[in-house]
From TrEMBL:
Organism: Chromohalobacter israelensis (strain ATCC BAA-138 / DSM 3043 / CIP 106854 / NCIMB 13768 / 1H11)
Assigned keywords, A-Z: ATP-binding, Nucleotide-binding, Transport
One Pfam match: ABC_tran
PANTHER family linked: ABC TRANSPORTER ATP-BINDING PROTEIN (PTHR42711)
Keyword ATP-binding: yes
Name of the protein in its database record: ABC transporter related protein
Lineage: Bacteria, Pseudomonadati, Pseudomonadota, Gammaproteobacteria, Oceanospirillales
Molecular function as annotated in GO: ATP binding; ATP hydrolysis activity
Amino acid sequence: MNHDITANATLDEAATADVSETTDSVIAVQGLSKRYASGFEALKGVDLEIRRGEIFALLGPNGAGKTTLISIICGLVNASAGRVLVDGHDIVEDYRAARRQIGLVPQELTSDAFATVWNTVSFSRGLFGKRSDPAHIERVLRSLSLWDKRRSKMITLSGGMKRRVLIAKALAHEPQILFLDEPTAGVDVALRRDMWNVVRDLRASGVTVILTTHYIEEAEEMADRIGVINDGDIVLVEEKAALMRQLGRKRLTLHLQTPLAAIPDALSEYPLTLADDGRVLVYTYAASDEHRHRDGINALLNDIQAAGIRFTDLHTEQSSLEEIFVNLVRKDA
């Protein structure tokens, strides 16, 4: 089952032959399924398109299929059914060309502990058959604030620096697509924000970035589009801003001078709730209906005043991407 609201129509056979000719997608996933020998179905006919030059965040709970999907696209796991095109290259029929386009930063911090940063990154370039290019390696290391560590052995680096080296390794062969699987797991807040800036710079240079993360604020901060996967199925794909508007909710919170035991009958027509032992009155509405609710808020405030209710403060807030994500996953369960 696929609920990708960016593509409601099923791709016909002609479109399936080469999606890259008709769209600006750099990755086209078509009917992708993965069933293991145990019978577990990790992916269930996934359709997904990644646009060239975007930052795409793939969200989902543990076991949802995120890593399986990435592993298939990167050629690390074989699909049971379906097809993947990477910049027009079939990942099975034209494996080498497809894989050259991709850089992968895995979750695990694995490397030769006694190799230097320079040798570690340079070796990764050679694995893709690329000629030695010290100038490119230097640019990559400088962009990731690793130049001063180029002669350091991996064993001497902090966890955050090792994660930067993983990104450098993934960029060594000049890929146009970069997969980041939980890129900031285990790093402190300051370094996490530094790495967000690195990702933005990569996107600005033309690299397409796909990241999985369990830090919802990471996706909220960086992504152009959000994809949600649950139980092997794409629940939705949407522009981040549109997602926040369509599925987000806004709250008008009023802090009352005198607590209320119950909402007065005169205000019963409004979607109001009491909180904090009657000290707070909350008016909740869909963010997509904000324009329509402006008049309603004015009427509400007038009716509150007419009911003799006084408040000391009021403010509005919008639900976070985390709240939207939790509600989506709960509904799909």
